[in-house]
Amino acid sequence: MKIDELVRKSADIRLRVLETALRAGKGHVPPAFSCVEIGVALFYGGVLQIKPSEPDWPDRDRFILSKGHGCLTLYAILADLSFFSEDELENFCGHGCMLAGHPDPNIPGVEVVSGSLGHGLGIGAGMALGAKIDDKDWFVYTLLGDGECQEGSVWEAAMFASHHRLNNLVAIVDRNRLGATDFTENSLSLEPFSRRWEAFGWETLNVNGHNIEQLIDVLSRAKQRSSTQPLVIIADTTKGKGVSFMEGSPLWHHRMPKGEEIQAALKELNKFSSQETN
Amino acid sequence: MITDFRDAVFNAVEEIMSKDKDVLVLYNDMGAMGLDKVRNEFPGRVINAGIAEQNMASVAAGLAMTGKRVFIYGIIAHIFSRGFEQIRNDICCPNLPVTILGVGSGLSYGTDGPTHHGVQDIAVMRTLPNMAIYNPADSVSAHASVRLADERCGPGYIRMDKEQLPAIYGQEADFRTGFYILHKGSDIALLATGVLVHRAIEAARQLADEGISVRVMDVFRLKPIDGNALYAAIEDVNAVLTVEENSPIGGLSSIIAELIALHDRQITFAGIALNDEAMMGAASRKWAEAKYGLSLEGIITKLRQMVKATHKR
């Protein structure tokens, strides 16, 4: 897909995320919005080698959504790619339905249970080690939240991955600078964030997390590297991206738009979307 | 005859690894002679994951997702609690073949202080879906536990004691039912688990001389319990006593009380265990036995009382 098509795809995904959450009356919309371009670059930009018709294809690249609360973006993408029916989105968080507020591997295309933070990178390190042992070429891409990096287990995994030279492991950090109620730098500061990853033995790249061209460029480089280090891509993002009153606001983590906010949000998202929605 | 639990367990691990290249061991920088042997034989497949139990459990899950079967080894007190969420979410939710080998059941490390006591893990691990828990009393059942856990191909947890104890079982013993009747008797059933099985047998022998007939059972698989078979093995007696070197909450006494409560029959029931308290200082086994009634004398006294009370009823 061309870049302008991917930009429109991102807008469509955002719209689908909001519609899905509004229908269910719940969901983490702003943290899903901050990682839309990352998801689009991975799934539509030729980065992940996957087969929607065969979700368990043994040689697929593994994608782990470690920030499980961002799952509305993943669900919208997986449904769009026909990993499962679009109808499932309509049942998001419905009684006994497949798609819950955090993902699990009973969902086609989802590798791991996530929702509790600080697990995905360790699981990804285990998968990457398994691939090395078996001499497999597939890669593991793990998307973490920046607030998630306050979890100690992330740094245990970071040490493990560099110690074992897991250069087939890629971490992408959605650096939207917000946790659930406050800025990360107010609660438990992460800076100097890049230098911390470097000190843990990771090759560290910084990218604009809403620029699809840049994202595809750095994500595609992962498999071409000769370095033995694991790779972390720190993607600077805006929480709530796409809806001005949500953007970068500590108030918007899992809050749902109400009343006039709904029309205002839909109007902003519709501007860039290829779809007609009310 | 091997008497060390760790040697028996790692011998079994070695046997499995020699037949299947997809089996790995991770450990949290914790040593064992048996582990050294396995590491020397399969250097690339035995990995020191460092003192990072949370990550070790997650890595084991990730490896299992690539088709490996993984054993993770460490001290019970640390491995079950520090990495509990990883065991729950990453290993048990997706039902992955990861077997936790924990050393230091009960007060194995009693004199090392409360941080090292393995006395709450049974209660906590029992709540995990898909988990199987083995608490062997000797090297033969310890060896068999590894095989059974591996064949199950799901999450497993094997508790190892640090004592060197004589073998109870012969090599032909079949452990698939999860419990064994080790001493026949009809006045009372004495259900034990782990190291206390040895003392339970001795108590039954001594009471036989007094004409009290004690049925001793080793409940070595604490989850899943074959409730029908286990209840059938105790339903003809009027009294049941459990003994365990464990918190009184959620362990063997809870398991058996829950089982009995499901049936409409009055059985006199009691459990001897540790107290629900943090044991500060050097909680040696000898000290704890005397304090909590887990000594041979304590168990015999309790059995006598219960049999007497049951006969009166």
Describe the structure.
- The complex is a heterodimer of chains A (278) and B (313).
- With 278 residues, chain A is α/β, with parallel strands linked by helices.
- Chain A has a single domain (3-270), classed as Rossmann fold (3-Layer(aba) Sandwich).
- Helices cover 39% and strands 10% of the residues of chain A.
- Chain A is built from 11 helices and 5 strands, in the order H-H-H-E-H-H-H-E-H-E-H-H-E-H-E-H.
- Chain A has helices at 3-24, 29-33, 36-44, 71-80, 87-90, 120-133, 152-163, 184-187, 193-199, 212-221, 260-270, and strands at 62-65, 140-145, 169-175, 203-208, 231-236.
- Chain A has a 5-stranded parallel sheet, sandwiched between helices.
- In chain A, helix 1 packs across helix 3.
- Chain A is globular.
- The model of chain A has no long low-confidence stretch (mean pLDDT 96).
- With 313 residues, chain B is an alpha/beta fold.
- Chain B contains 12 helices and 12 strands.
- Chain B has helices at residues 5-19, 33-41, 53-65, 76-82, 84-92, 121-126, 139-152, 196-208, 227-232, 252-261, 285-292, 296-312; strands at 23-27, 46-48, 69-75, 98-103, 132-134, 156-160, 179-183, 188-192, 214-219, 221-223, 239-243, 268-272.
- In chain B, strands 2-1-3-4-6-5-10 form a 7-stranded mixed sheet, sandwiched between helices.
- In chain B, strand 5, helix 7 (139-152) and strand 6 (156-160) form a beta-alpha-beta unit.
- In chain B, helix 1 (5-19) packs parallel to helix 7 (139-152) and helix 8 (196-208) packs across helix 12.
- Chain B starts with a helix and ends with a helix.
- Chain A binds chain B through residues 104-105, 111-113, 115-116, 118-119, 121-131, 133-134, 136, 152-153, 156-157, 159-160, 163, and chain B through 24, 44, 49-50, 52, 54-55, 57-68, 85-86, 89-90, 93-94.
